[in-house]
Amino acid sequence: MHVLVPEDPVFMTRFLAMEDPLLHSLYYFYLRDLPPGHAETIRTAYEGWADIQYRMPPCLHWQEMAVRRAPRPRDREGYTLLGRGGAPLTCLHAVEMNAESIAVLKACHALLVEAESDGVGPLARALGEIAEHGRNTVDDFRRVVDVLQLQAPPRLLGSLRRAAPAGRATAISLDGTQQAEYEAFCDRIVRTLSAGDRFTYAMHRALYF
Fold first, then answer.
1. Which among 106, 104, 122, 88 has a CA at the least distance from the CA of 207?
2. What's the pTM value of the predicted model, to 2 decimals?
3. CA distance 209 to 187
4. DSSP state of 95
5. Which of 132, 135, 151, 133 lies closest to 192, judged by CA?
6. Which of the residues 27, 40, 105, 136 has an alpha carbon 20 to 30 A from that of 198?
């Protein structure tokens, strides 16, 4: 299956946070304390996250993209996405993913929500300790999984599959219909990742519109 992944620092920050602090901490510091079924769910989710991260294009491995001040290294360049009139757009990357990797993340999120709701047990205690560092990592986890499950418009996806680095095209120009699909899809990304915080939502939306 192909997923449209945005070259978006908000998405990438939250995607990376699924691993550190959440999955990394659960795997390396708490796994032995968890019931076997919970431990297996965490283990397979970590493997699923790593599989998805491995499939990301090189420009999305550039973890400093959120604070990038210099051009990307040449070997990490992707493509240029242009809208009507040649206006540059935030790139979407058509990434071929294993549906099972997304499914195990979804199952892991369900387990984390259940543990938080119960409020007792080793997993709930672990999540409480991890949450002391700041963000609601379980909610961010959900938001990223929801973005990975967004169904891409077929016509837009077909065009973007031609883009570098997976394809040969170094520039893609969208026609009016494709741009309408692009804008609707990106609006769903922004709402999924940033709804609930008016300031964050407005700043995030400005990346696309």
1. 88
2. 0.90
3. 9
4. E
5. 151
6. 105
